[in-house]
Predict the 3D structure of the following.
Amino acid sequence: MMNEKKWESIMDAPIIKVKPPGPLSSKMLEEQDRFETASRSYTKIFRTALDYGKNATVVDVDGNVFIDLFAGVSVINMGHGNPDVINAIQKQTEKLTHITEVPTESRISFLKTLDSTLPGKMRGKSKIFTTVTGGDACELAIQLARFVTGKKVIVAFGGSYHGIAGNIVSATANSHYREYSGNDYLNTYHLPYPYPYRFPHDVEPEEMSKIVAENLENLIIDPYSGTGGIAGVIVEPVQGEGGYIVPPKNFLPLLREITQKHNVPLIVDEVQTGMGRTGKIWATEHAGITPDIITISKSVGGGIPISMIAYDEEYDRDLPAGFHLGTYRANPLGLAAGNVIFQKLKHEEFMKEIRNKGNLIIESLRKLETESRFIGDVRGLGLMVGVEFVKDRKTKEPNGDLAQRIKTEMFNRGVLIHTCGHYANVIRFMPPLTIEESLLRKAMNIFSEVVVKLSKD
């Protein structure tokens, strides 16, 4: 459980002493521009330089205090400066900071703890393969599926994001990521994701899943479908960059039924949805299914870059040595942090708190729907909540401009928040899971004020 030492956010947040970027932040941003690539994106969104963080708050070098509803893109799930996570990392630092594949105490403890949390029938019947980034984990997952089946084509979904380096960029739906990657839609086929607010057919949510599932089965069984054989299906249980889209409840069970029927590996990408983000350790648990492969990253290392896949132990029998290499796989510091984090996530009371805080956000947004005609849809699971802005509720024309203005105004008022979605018109709420309820209410009040104000402009 949590360290007895007092640890909480800066409860007076937000505190804006000087309009960001302040003088010290401006100087650091200038120096960063001098030495670092201009292709950065987040410094265009958050024009400040940070000093330190405490749970769900961060402080910039000019003394401004921000409420963090961003969590480093769902990486700092356990909050900034979590004493248990920091203590685990510090203890491991004194022992060993790097070794490749050789067992250590932190490695064995982590593997046992991770295995004890795996969804469905994966627990006790899986192998773990470590990598470094989320994209790397997804890359490995499709390589493993191709190796096991001897086939090449991967089925992904519209709106998907699985990484942008190497061949995995083919499975990521947004085409602009392939403009400079050197890869095209190589051996990848995209089906529509059952996106209840924008599905191409006007049917009930449960029917959306059936339509997608029927299309998938046709790709698998029809020799003239053009695929040449399916190696695997990769899916996000809740879409992240695509817009925090929660699919109908029957979607994942139908995917599991069809892939199992035809011996096609089902890969569930839990990089953003895992580690408690949706109010379960794994979002897969909401559907009650057992994947063949899951990908794990982001918050697993408490800010230390590590990732991995867990997969059916049967797939491990013929894997050759050196199947997927990388010097920095399974950093001991990240494993030590991950062991502590998983132990915390195993407490159902903590999961209940996450779900309650997610409901708080959704209730606040539902109320806001009555005050802003530009809110088209509210959706989410746990602390993975999205609100989609439109110009007109009848036409559903995306209102990306308003979403960007909201994001900027929230930053100016001391709240870090980010967008996503097919049209960059979805504001997403992904605070640290440990955010205090009173601080979350304060942030939601600020959000409501900003939306109402900008809706009148």
In short: The chain is about 35% helix and 15% strand. Residues 86-345 form a domain with the Aspartate Aminotransferase; domain 2 fold (CATH 3.40.640.10).
